[in-house]
Amino acid sequence: TTRIALLHIHTGPACVAVATKAYGRALERSPKDASILRGLATLHVNWGAWRLKRGEDPTEQFRAGEEEMGKALALEPEETDGRLSLAMMRMNWSLWVDQHGGDPGPHYAAAVAHLDAALARNPALAEARLWLDSPGGDPAHAAALFRSFPAAYPAAAPEMRRVAVGGAFDA
User: How many CA atoms lie within 13 A of 96 on its CB side?
Assistant: First the structure.
């Protein structure tokens, strides 16, 4: 479901509407399916990020994504990818708020809380540690930390390989 959400983000607003309806139909059939809820949340979060990159207000999409991901996490509280997604969304949202004269603090605090919650469930979760150790969630700093991370956190080695294979820090 997440791949569908990503595909529709890259093809425009009309496709996002189609994907939203498809997720709605899937939820009618399986309202307690956390993977469908995560897919819908991912659609909203990615749509908000797309709007943010275009200089448009992502608030509506981010709120919808957080609501759907909250439902998914209520069904699968030990799941960590959704928490990471919410953390990245809140970091992006804090940038938007800051650029428009608001207080980014609550959004940044929420991002840190999501990262902490992910780490509480999986202490070897490389992405969460890197973002928490990175000033302001700076990707360049995170990439540098990534290279020295295995020595500092040996228990995270398997997770680091997964992230490296996924190309998260091809810098």
Answer: 22
Per residue in 102-125, is it b (16+ CB within 10 Å) or e — as a string? eebeebbebbbebbebbbeeeeeb
Side-chain half-sphere exposure of 102, counting CA atoms within 13 A:
13
How far is CA 68 from its chain centroid? 12
pLDDT for 13-39, tens place per residue? 777 888 888 899 999 999 999 999 999
40 three-class SS: helix
Looking at residue 91, its amino acid is M
The token pair at 23 is 């997720």
Q: What Cα–Cα distance (Å) separates residue 105 from each residue in 44, 55, 56, 70, 110?
A: 22, 20, 20, 21, 8
Q: Over the range 20-56, which residues count as b (16 or more CB within 10 Å of their CB) and which as e?
A: bebbeebbeeeeeebebbbbbbbbbbbbbbbbbeeee
Kindly give, in sequence order, each residue whose CB lies less than 8 Å from that of residue 3, ignoring residues fewer than 6 positions away. none
Confidence (pTM): 0.70
Kindly tell me the burial class for residue 2, based on how many C-beta atoms sit within 10 Å of its own C-beta (0-12, 13-18, 19 or more).
middle
